[in-house]
Amino acid sequence: MERMNWIADIFGLWARRCMALVALVMLAACAQNTPSGGAGDFAAGSVNDPSSPAYFQARVGDRVFFAVDKSDLSPEARTTLNAQAAWLMENTLYDAIIQGHTDERGTREYNLALGARRANSVFEYLILQGVPEGRLRTVSFGKERPQEACSSEACYAQNRRSVTLVASGTGV
Amino acid sequence: MTRLFALLAAMGAAWAVTTSLVHAQSGPLRIEITDGVVEPLPVAISPFVTGSLQEQALATSLVEVIKADLEGTGLFRSISPDAFVSPVTNFDSPVAYADWKVINAQALVTGELTQSGNRITVKFRLFDVFSEVPLGDGLSFSGTQADLRRVAHKVADAVYNRITGEAPYFDSRVVFVAETGPKNARQKRLAIMDYDGANVQNLTDGRDLVLAPRISRDAGRVLFTSYASGFPQIYEMSLGTLRARPLAEQPGTMTFSPRYSPDGRSILFSLSQRGNTDLYRLDLGSGTRTRLTTNASIETAPSFSPDGRQIVFESDRSGKPQLYVMPGNGGTPQRISRGPGRYGTPVWSPTGTHIAFTKQNQGRFHIGVMRPDGSEERLLTASFLDEAPTWAPNGRVLMFTREAPGANSAPQLFTVDITGRNLRPVSTQVAGSDAAWSPVLN
Hints:
By secondary structure, chain A is α+β, with helices and mostly antiparallel strands. Chain A has 6 helices and 4 strands.
């Protein structure tokens, strides 16, 4: 019974968001899904379920990028993080782990510390937007987990990132 | 004897002279130093005297290891046994110096291997061929067959020590990170090997990401960083039991970059909290933690001087990473790195005379050394990515991580002399990084 209510809530939330939010990503999502209707498109946990981690990752945007050796947030990063904060405040069942990553151009130790700075920039910003601190935790991977493996700026730019992972009951 | 010492004097000259041509001559022994390259000393290692085919097979393996140790220094060249006029057949017979002079062997190693059950005993002697005198007394080592490589390292250490005057380093082990899998999903295992890459043994199963191990001076314990909890935390493993325990746990923080104090009773490490990374010291016995820095900048990669009185570390308080030295229990740091570029991972040499470091400048990475006051900086290597130096027990050689660019690259361990000569890969069977070299074993 609880589960049913929860899914109903999601649909309610979905409807509200389509009306209220003007973010391009959201419009695209609404445009794509509203006409065809069908409950199957809103399967819980799918990328079309706006309260799912998959939705957070694909539609809200789970990552922001940083300049070389920097941890300050660009205007684009702030836009993404505003959407992350809104999602987290709507979906209070979820906690988040913020990963900080670097490119490979630095020593392992320094990059761990730099990744910690990046993760913390996101952490502080999300708190400022109203996300309770107790739902967030940071971790640095330094240069250990690149998104892209090539050794050129095109890949490095993708690797200098923070990634917000949401999961329910992570106990952070 | 005098000629060997003449060679040593020339090797000393190589230290200082890196770009000019030096041509030294002393009697029949020629030493050529070009661009810092020393002409290796020709050494004859006579096949060790044995009494059975089984002993002979063991002795052949033994001599191969001795030869590889000596040649690996770049200071010695082993003369092919094919050239030997009359190999030694009786360990206690007088040496026929003329037979070794004629093939221009400057030094001669003779030995005997005997086996009794699982136990082997190796005797050896070293001679200065042209002066026709023994170099030091004969020595004897024994152990089980499993110790054969260690016995060989002990013999080679004695030869190296007697001819160069430097402390030995071959009978030592290296803890490192063995790496497998693609670059964006690397599996990392703690592993331990002999200094030359032999006898690799995994210490962890690869399930958790592990980084940058450090080995204690008694070679019995290893500090490392593991993501076993999902977050980087420092652990200490006993090499006897392979059990690891977390150190310095504190919710909401990350800890990494640990290093032992010289007495092994405390550690230095970095702790990140709210994005700020500072240095701490932890007493392993009492668990007492002391914060050593309180800056808003990044402070990491701490390393004690061998007397424990000072700490060298990396900080970006000036805007980019540089090296600083401060008292062993904290206090005002002095910046010691002065050149262009970014400096990191400083490591104090076991002799206290140098600090090795990683330097990033104009798109290249270097391993370098400087004096503890920052003077006499010299870069020893250059590549796309060199980092994480560790000192040989005698402070003459550095091992470090090198990785080529590209999606399919994998790191490899290399060694280089602190003269910048003799750069060579360590022949590990797996990709390896982040070496930590133990002291010479007992």
